[in-house]
Write a structure and sequence with these properties.
two-stranded antiparallel sheet, about 325 residues, about 65% helix, 4 strands, elongated, single chain, mainly alpha
């Protein structure tokens, strides 16, 4: 462990010097040390008996490194993707804005988590898509495909959350929420809302890629028939969905790696532990999300192909829909 003197830089104790011990009250990594001049977070408490103050190590100040990482991400995004990269950053910020300032306050104020999430999801899907990809038929098609796919995902999630008798308490944070809230929240709906938001991040990429591929194929061969265009698009979509679902499963497995490692140290019967709620939640989340993605590909592909081959019949409405693809 390390013993050090710290100077308080913020708060009512600013300027005071305290001695703290790092490594006796928490698990520390032997490769990480606190050096002279480092900034850390400390908790200051007052003894109710003698009114003396004590300071304790809380965590490292990571915001400067995180800020640099975000700046590098923004620069690379704009350099690689140009104007679309900049619009993508704006779309990300808008999505986070909707989640933080609309969905979360709505749930916190006692509204139904599922309803608030569906309305918020429709809002940030539309905002992000139209900002990133512009006002054109490709974006309209992807937006409609997203809404249909989200609806299917929500229905599947509802069916399997009920059939597996999930309560929504598989995440330990839900217990803290239950203690903090004065109203009776349906935590199963909170679980459903989380599944929808988790699926949307991957769904956006999938539907816009399929829509873009169909309209590009049509641009190369305007005489192609509906089913031929649909089959060509599905050939692209099959590869895309396989890679996407694999990415989704690996992302969940990576997040759960410490838990999986813990199970590997013991002679665990995996046919039994899948019944535990915290693990069953992740299984339902992964498989339902994947099924939603599976549905999105043929739906968006067929919708895009149908619009493409019939676009010339739209007449004056084409002026309001914009070009096929940009």
């Amino acid at each position: 462990y390390q013993i050090m003197l710290v100077e308080i830089l913020d708060g009512s104790q600013q300027g005071q010097i305290y001695q703290i011990v790092y490594g006796t009250r928490q698990v520390r990594n032997e490769k990480i040390h606190i050096n002279v001049g480092d900034q850390i977070l400390v908790t200051i408490s007052q003894n109710p008996v003698n009114n003396e103050y004590s300071a304790y190590f809380t965590d490292f100040v990571r915001s400067p490194a995180l800020l640099w990482l975000f700046i590098i991400f923004c620069i690379v995004s704009v350099v690689i993707s140009g104007w679309k990269g900049l619009r993508s950053l704006i779309g990300i910020l808008l999505s986070l804005f909707v989640i933080i300032f609309i969905i979360l306050p709505g749930i916190r104020d006692g509204r139904d988590p599922l309803l608030v999430t569906i309305l918020g999801a429709a809002l940030f899907i539309s905002l992000s898509m139209y900002i990133i990809y512009g006002w054109n038929v490709k974006t309209h098609t992807a937006f409609i495909g997203s809404l249909i796919s989200v609806t299917i995902t929500g229905l599947l999630a509802l069916v399997f959350v009920n059939s597996t008798r999930l309560t929504g308490f598989g995440d330990e944070n839900v217990f803290y929420i239950a203690q903090l809230t004065s109203f009776q929240m349906d935590f199963r709906n909170l679980l459903l809302a989380g599944i929808l938001i988790g699926t949307l991040g991957v769904l956006d990429d999938l539907v816009i890629s399929q829509s873009s591929a169909i309209f590009e194929l049509f641009r190369q061969n305007p005489e192609i028939e509906l089913m031929a265009l649909f089959k060509s698009g599905m050939n692209i979509g099959k590869d895309h969905i396989a890679a996407t679902v694999n990415t989704l499963v690996l992302a969940y497995a990576g997040a759960s790696l410490p838990m999986l490692l813990l199970f590997s140290f013991h002679n665990i019967d995996y046919s039994l532990i899948v019944n535990l709620e915290f693990l069953a939640e992740e299984i339902v989340r992964t498989l339902v999300g994947s099924l939603g993605l599976f549905a999105a590909v043929p739906l968006t592909t067929f919708l895009a192909a149908l619009i493409a081959v019939n676009y010339k019949k739209f007449g004056d409405i084409k002026l309001y829909l914009g070009p096929l693809n940009e």
